Amino acid sequence: MKRDDQAMPQLAALEQGADAGVAGSDAVLSAQRVEKTYRNGTRALDEVKLEIKRGEFVSLLGPSGCGKSTLLKMFAGLEEPSHGHIRWWGKNLATVGTPGHTLAMVFQEATLMPWASVEQNVRLPLDLKHMARNESDARVRDALKLVGLDNFHKVLPRELSGGMQMRASIARALATQPNLLLMDEPFGALDEFTRNRLDADLRDIWSKQDLTVVFVTHSIYEAVFLSSRVIVMAARPGRIIADVAIDAPGPRDDAFRISAPFMQYCKTLSDYLTLANQGGGSHDALDH
Description:
Elements lengths: L10 E2 L14 E11 L5 E11 L3 E5 L6 H8 L7 E6 L14 E4 L11 H11 L4 H14 L15 H13 L5 E5 L7 H17 L3 E6 L2 H7 L2 E6 L4 E7 L8 H4 L2 H18 L11
Parallel strand pairs: 4-8, 4-9, 6-7, 7-8
Antiparallel strand pairs: 1-10, 2-3, 2-5, 9-10
Helix pairs in contact: 2-3, 2-4, 3-4, 6-8
Protein name: ABC transporter ATP-binding protein
Pfam families: ABC_tran
Family: Belongs to the ABC transporter superfamily.
């Protein structure tokens, strides 16, 4: 493939026709020729091949209907492929939940119990596991501190802003101490200021924890700010058309958001999204 380093920095276009092979030993997730066709005949995903390694922050970016959320649900074990295989840590779904192989998911809505305090909401998955109260209390305290809600543990969800409710939802996921965190557009309904602040906090949490994150978003700016890699998807049917590494050392802060590298990465992803919306994504379109 010809590569324009100015137009496409750190680009690694996926060769969808190549054999996916066996996932690497450090792979947390792998999709091996995964397809999804619903009963009404809709092809949601077509031969998706993807490997996500330990410690990566990978965003799935693409237009509505490209299968981002479907793929994420497969990674969570909530959907099964029509063809192909999903592997977790190189094994089948049975390995999920064993020591060192746990996952948690944050949905688009905070989905908090309105009658329960923030503390009780965050403790819910630990109570379901019948965890000892002293251990669950410690985990809840740590999770709330991570998301900046340590002073709001007794508050009811209705007394929180939308951004704070989402923080509580993230804390609930973090309290389980997951190795893999799946996030389905968690900040999509928030205003830009709140979204930027939560992006910065999430990036900070990821950098301090032994976490692998897969994050679904429609926002180019959010994907560039958060990610070590961005997977660009096209629709009809859903497929991967590019895998772009975001190689930006140093802090991801407000200065990064207005830097030349940030703008160039946004331009690169915008070009791919234009291609996706035009129904592109063939080898020729990617300059093979």
